[in-house]
Amino acid sequence: MKRSDDLYSLPPDLPIPIDDGSCDHLAGLLWPSVPLRSTRGTWVSLAAVRAEWLVVYCYPRTGLPDQDPPGGLEAWDAIPGARGCTPQACSYRDHHAELVQHGAHVFGVSTQHTEYQREVVDRLHLPFELLSDSELELARALQLPTFSVAGQTLIKRLTLVAREGRIDKCFYPVFPPNGDAENILNYIRGAAS
Prior knowledge:
Layout: E1 35-38, E2 43-45, E3 53-58, H1 73-78, H2 85-101, E4 104-110, H3 114-124, E5 129-132, H4 137-142, E6 146-149, E7 152-155, E8 158-163, E9 166-171, H5 180-192
Parallel strand pairs: 3-4, 4-5
Antiparallel strand pairs: 1-2, 1-5, 3-8, 6-7, 8-9
């Protein structure tokens, strides 16, 4: 089976997510000591990562080239902010070298299992790790906004930028997803100057 859409691009008529205030509490928080399984086969606690900038983009779920999204394509596209995980990952891949040059360490986080995430790392040639919050431990510890579709609880799309173990800024909602990495890069450049 082949998907009925283009997984790598965004339809022009997607509903734009609105800021419902559910991330207003995140700036200033310390990372919780929650170990998450990585696509590199290790466990990562964001509280233990040492980097000038820590960039953690949370996304609902990446799709597969041979499957429509949960609930069907029309239902998925109707959820504000749901569509665009693959273009967002590609954006971080394409800007990764520049982010690293500015001292950033990038992780992607979703509630998908590590085996599922490894497929997208391989297919998209991602140079960074994806972390699995399949038990929603990080989402609960930080009180991240979630939504449910087809029996799955997914994290809403947001990006956390941290320094010295503390969240500096939360970007929420992130739209369009394929502009996220460039937006974060501009934020880091501005903060450094």
